[in-house]
Automatic annotation (TrEMBL):
InterPro entries: Kinase-like_dom_sf (IPR011009), Prot_kinase_dom (IPR000719), Protein_kinase_ATP_BS (IPR017441). The lineage of its organism: Bacteria, Pseudomonadati, Bacteroidota, Cytophagia, Cytophagales. CDD domains: STKc_PknB_like. ATP binds at residue 37. GO terms for molecular function: ATP binding; protein serine/threonine kinase activity. This is Protein kinase domain-containing protein.
Amino acid sequence: MNQTIRGYTLTQWLGSGGMGEVYQGYHEVTRQTVAIKLLSRLEHAERFRNEANVQASLRHPHIALLHDFFVEGGLSCLVMEYIEGPTIEQFTRKNGPLTEEAAWKILGQVASALTYLHSHQIVHRDLKAGNIKFGGQGNAKLLDFGLARLANSPRQTRQGHLVGTAYSMAPEQFAGESTTASDCWALGVLFYEMLTGYTPFGGTTESEIGRLIQKADYLSPLKLKPTLSRTSERLIDKLLVVNPENRLTAQQVLDIIQNPAQLDSSNWTDPIRKIWGRLKF
């Protein structure tokens, strides 16, 4: 493979996503190794531009940097920071769940990235293990802003069309609503998956997954990994809450990481809220 686009030589195919193919590239002049996403489906051109517009302004240590966006020969190209290493999804499939210490570390890094996005009124809308890579020294980087949007911007998809990855979607997303709280639900799903190696909502069809999610009906992570701390279980419980108004924010997750004892004080309303969420549907 020696195809060259705008001075970048494509050296290796890295994978494909919903909108395009991703390659490792190298610029002969700057000697910079990058990741290049090439749009493969023309009907997604508007989303591809949206990804560039959203990501271009972002500067955060746990968000992949966008270097350039251009159209060459009718082909839309995103040039991004190249991050060596697997995604969290790839890692857990090969090696099993992370240690609790490692999971908390990555949780804090991703929560920090979400706090930054949400402070800029940006909702990621597709936070999942496959969109987070391990950088150097175990540092996580959030990728793929193809579905991201400003919190108050108009929908880019038609009514009734689901946006996101079903198993990590919040209950309100099945009704077409996405807010910063939806990202925090996905953060809870991510934490559960890092700790156990499984997703909390494992139905075989999208509708079955949706029914489980809308009741917050999931197996306690302690059943899958009995050595987990009660603190991790409580944190998941406070993120996977049906009512988005009662969910922890990304900033609150950061605060808890600084002082986990906040989760030790039992709240007698939590079990009632959980039971009510399951009975509503």
